[in-house]
Amino acid sequence: MPGDEEQQKRALRARLRERRQLLSDAERESAAVGIARQLTALVRAHDVRSVSCFLSTATEPDTRGFVRAAVSRGIRVLLPITRADGLLDWAVADDDEITEGLFGLPEPGGQALGPNAVDDVELMIIPAAAIDRIGTRLGWGRGYFDKTIGSMQRRPPVYAVIYDSEVLDSLPREVHDQPVNGFVTPTRTITISPARD
After folding, report:
1. Where is average pLDDT lowest: 63-67, 106-110, 113-117, 168-172?
2. Which CA distances in Å does 140 have to 44, 71, 97, 137, 193?
3. For residue 134, is it within any domain?
4. pTM, whole model, 2 decimals?
5. Which of 64, 95, 186, 191 is deepest in the core (most CB within 10 A)?
6. Full domain range(s) for residue 171
7. What CA–CA distance (Å, rounded) separates 37 from 39?
């Protein structure tokens, strides 16, 4: 039986998912431009040549414009591929077709490099449903990114991508939840010092 934190997370995810579905096409397009601008500035500020990102779904803040632009500038971008065992494989972003992975998520069609490929990135950009002001991230409940971040030998800075309305004062947190170093919205990028227990 799920604990209080997990029940709170489920209810919050449902509300956030519904709010995202209500966004208009114009709001999504405006957010996509802002996200690309903010992510490009973040990569430049960290002066990195290798990042991991994700291919956004229809309701997520759009990361695809950023991925295309980063690849065109010669930045190596790794994209996740979900596996049935709860781990992520990674593939290099290029012009290959996008396929539908587990859970209907968009994934790169390139060659899977294995879970350890992400150990070489200098910056991680990950999805989230919400973030709180101390770096607690609420994901969508499958734990892929928490497992990945928690098992990395050398953890780079990790930033979550969300809409402006998804920055909350506090979120329920469980032991396995991995904090982030900051978040990116269509209008701002905030670096925080995540709480560690």
Report:
1. 106-110
2. 29, 27, 25, 10, 23
3. yes
4. 0.91
5. 186
6. 4-191
7. 6
DSSP 166-186: GEES-----TTPPP-SEEE-S
Q: Which amino acid, residue 9?
A: K
Residue 90, beta-bridge partner list? 80
In the chain, where does DSSP find H-type helix?
A: 4-21, 25-46, 64-72, 144-151
CA distances from 85 to 117, 126, 142, 176 (A): 17, 19, 11, 17
Residue 1 has pLDDT above 50, yes or no: no
The reported pLDDT for the residue numbered 197 is 44
Report the C-alpha gap between 26 and 115 in whole angstroms.
37
Residue 196, domain member (yes or no): no
Whether 168 is covered by a domain: the verdict is yes
Split at pLDDT 50, 70, 90, the class of 9 is confident
